[in-house]
Amino acid sequence: MATVMDIDARGMQHCETTALGVLLRHQGLDLSEPMLFGLGSGLSFLYWDSKNMDFPFLGGRVKPFELTRNLAAALGLELVVRETTSPRRAWENVVSSLAAGHPVGLQLDSYHLDYFTSKVHFGGHVVALYGYDDHNAYLVDTGQQGGAVSTSLASLARARAARGPMSARHRSFTLTVPRDLPSPHTRIVSAITSCADAFLDPPIANLGHRGIEKAGKLVRTWLRRTDAPQRDLPQAALLMEKAGTGGALFRNLYRDFLAECARLLDSSHLRTGLRLYTEAAVLWTEVAALIEKAGTSGSAQYLEQAGTLLCDLARVEREAMQALSRLRSTAPASPGL
What we know:
Blueprint: E1 2-3, H1 15-25, H2 33-39, E2 43-48, E3 57-61, H3 66-75, E4 78-82, H4 87-99, E5 104-108, E6 125-132, E7 136-140, E8 148-152, H5 153-161, E9 172-176, H6 188-200, H7 208-218, H8 222-225, H9 229-241, H10 251-262, H11 268-297, H12 301-325
Antiparallel strand pairs: 1-6, 2-3, 4-9, 5-6, 5-9, 6-7, 7-8
Domain Butirosin biosynthesis protein H N-terminal: 14-142
Organism: Streptomyces thermoalcalitolerans
Domain DUF4872: 155-324
């Protein structure tokens, strides 16, 4: 048996930030979940639909693992990523890190994990592995999934080997905090403006504020998009509010990140962004509730209302990101920044 000792198995709201928190706290760097999410420039928007999908998907963050790469780059962390098509080599990669005393991040398909009660394929799920024995692997997942949990070695192998949208080839990773780590607070402005730039100038119309506006038009057709509206629409609403998003399609997390930043940096642009994302978080929860009502009632009027709110949200978030993008021209007002 190989178990990493002294793990702070704190399950947070989102899977990737939960795993990052475990890996970094093990080395003495303890950042709040909103700070991890924000420094990783994690906020985004995606309207995803295709012919081989049963129902459209609304995503509120950057693609899986991009947050980890962004955070490592922002803080100068050493990120070692291992991928392989060999299950045997994949397990050896994990065992070697554990033997060296380091917990390991894994990207896998949550469908196969024993402790998951909601059996939906999602190949972008991330957990922290801190030990194993002859039968089980010991993981840290979100608080919603139980925090410190276990799953059979066989189920873990299936989860890591799964293929499909957003999956990776047995991806495992470790992070090393440098001795000369810069204060995370000095990276706030660059993380925010980088996120704002991507959101304001997306390469395709399905992303960023343009994606939200597109969703506002297309959500009105969702009752015609499915043969099972009482299943698919409430499921879409659930994914927005409960599936590791922290509520409001990650807008609650970003609002809290901006609030934490506002206590460190005196900026009218930051306060404007915070005010607008506080408004946006409320509206996203209302959108989810309307989508659920449309599914349970079969009434298109709720989708019309959701579409109107989404068009409002496209404007609110565009204005918020425009304000936040102006932070790069603002001189730091605090010695710590």
